Amino acid sequence: MIQLIMKNQYFTQENLKNKAKEMLEKVRKYRDYHKIELLPEKSALLVIDMQKYFLSPSSHAHVPSAYAILPGIKKLISVYSKKKLPVIFTLHSNTKENAGIMKKWWPELLLEGSPESRLPKELESLEGIIIEKNQYDAFYNTDLEQILKKKNIRQLVICGVLTNICCETTARSAFVRGFEVFFAIDGTAAYSEEHHISALINLSYGFTIPVLTEELFYILLKKTKHKT
Q: Looking at the chain, which runs of residues are DSSP E strands?
């Protein structure tokens, strides 16, 4: 992707916890206003576009903060899987035919079937439903909504990349379809801290509940422990 901004690694393994808490404070007033409780048995984990294209340092589309959020995402996947709750991975790729305006917007497409379009080794062995998508919105021209409704899912926990593009677009789309959305502050990453915080502010105001991964772990383990 063309670089319209300078990338920066605003999340690291060392600062992730504290920085995420600082970000939560910026949007806490919105969360406190919207009293929506996570109900694990009615929720699904949606892992958006955690692909080699965005995680590999050799890729021009590399997201510098992506590896910092990866351990938390893996832990979320593990907890959801152990509780037998749905885990859904999205994989983005394009052909010239299905790219639409994206082929005008970006000088390079993530091509369907390319090695870069696959999950990285840290995630490829984990179980979950895989949905192939070709636009920012994971609901657009996919079976995602049908899958969720069939499983009686009313809530989504969103993590992955990019915070301000595919994660944000999908979160908005989920909201207008009637799903309650929990957006992982330290489980998503963008190219810059500015983009990350801007997305959090907009989403927290009108579309999602901002959460920390440690809060998700606590709720998941506390509210589903009687099922284990």
A: 43-48, 87-92, 129-133, 155-161, 180-189, 208-211
Tens-digit pLDDT profile for residues 94-117: 999 999 999 999 989 999 999 999
Please give the full DSSP string across 145-157, using - where no structure is assigned.
HHHHHHTT--EEE
Tell me the pLDDT tens digit for each residue of 72-86.
999 999 999 999 999
Cβ–Cβ < 8 Å for 159, 184: yes
Helices (H) and strands (E) in the chain, counts: 9, 6
Give the confidence band of 4 by pLDDT, cuts at 50, 70, 90.
low
Q: Mark 182-192 as b/e (b = at least 16 C-beta within 10 Å).
A: bbbbbbbbbbb
Residue 74, both tokens: 């893996």
User: What is the CB neighbour count within 10 angstroms for residue 90?
Assistant: 24
Angular region, 153: left φ>0, alpha ψ -120 to 50, beta rest: beta
